[in-house]
Amino acid sequence: MCPEHLRAHLEKPVFQNHPLVNAVEDVSLWRCQEHQEMNRIYCRSCAVCVCTVCSLVGSHKGHECISIRKAEQELRQLLLFISGIQQDGRTVSKMVQLLVDYYLIMFIKYNCVMSSSSLTELSDPLMFLSADGISPTLDPDTVHPKLLLSDENRTVQYSETQQDYPEQESRFNIFPQVLGSRAIDGGRCYWEVEVPLDEGRWKVGVCDGQIGRKGQKDICRIGFYPNSWCIIYEKGKVEALHDKVASPVCSAELWKIGVLLNFSEGRLSFYSVAREGSLSLLYSFEHTFTEPLYPALAVSKTQLSKM
């Protein structure tokens, strides 16, 4: 670094915490030996840096390639994720499981973007992204009369006006809740829900199909019914809720919740999804799931959707 540029980093307070390293003298280390181009691409498939020619017509053609800048951003997100679960005091085995889940989510989201022929656009209001390429919706036969579905049953909104829905045994008649239209009975699925932090109240979770639909009993409430698990927001507080037991959740600037259901391994994890796409774990439940599970939402005086 020349003295003129070095002075600013030494004298200005804004640069005081910036680490300075020696400049790279031999740039050939960053140059493709085959094409003599600078390596500006990261090949995910081979975990190496390559040049543009390699990624387009060379030995890495057809591989999953991204820019080095994008790879750096993903690495920083991963390091933040690791730091978060380390601070949470988790054992090594739990950390490994969560890291596997993290990469699983990245894999699912990437494949959903690439497989647009079998999935709707990621800009849909409430998007369910699953490893098997299916995008389920909310079930209108279960929706409470004070909830409105829109955007092809992917957005749910609370209304003070009672809707004239046909009577159904599967419809919730007291608690403002709705279930997904498709049960998950194996494998791993991931979906995201955009959530507001306003004066309303909401729950994002899962439950089996035996949850009660009529009356004010606990067996009809998501998070109270034993075979239901959720993240709940009420009066500015976010908690994980299962079988009437609430656990506090650190949720600064919560904007979107990612839900990863690993049915086969008995793990349900909730993530905070930042606007730039990074993930931070909110809470993880472990349970031996024996019945098919449905995505479940509860909404009061607000709406749930995905941009």
UniProtKB/TrEMBL annotation:
Alphabetized UniProt keyword annotations: Metal-binding, Zinc, Zinc-finger
Domain B box-type: 32-68
Highest taxon in the source lineage: Eukaryota
Signal peptide: none
Pfam families given in the database record: PRY (PF13765), SPRY (PF00622), zf-B_box (PF00643)
Keyword set includes Zinc: yes
Annotated InterPro entries: B30.2/SPRY (IPR001870), B30.2/SPRY_sf (IPR043136), Butyrophylin_SPRY (IPR003879), ConA-like_dom_sf (IPR013320), E3_ubiq-ligase_TRIM/RNF (IPR051051), PRY (IPR006574), SPRY_dom (IPR003877), Znf_B-box (IPR000315)
GO CC terms of this entry: cytoplasm
Keyword set includes Ubl conjugation: no
Gene Ontology terms for molecular function: zinc ion binding
Domain (B30.2/SPRY): residue spans on this chain: 116-307
Protein name, entry field: Si:dkey-29p10.4
Lineage: Eukaryota, Metazoa, Chordata, Craniata, Vertebrata
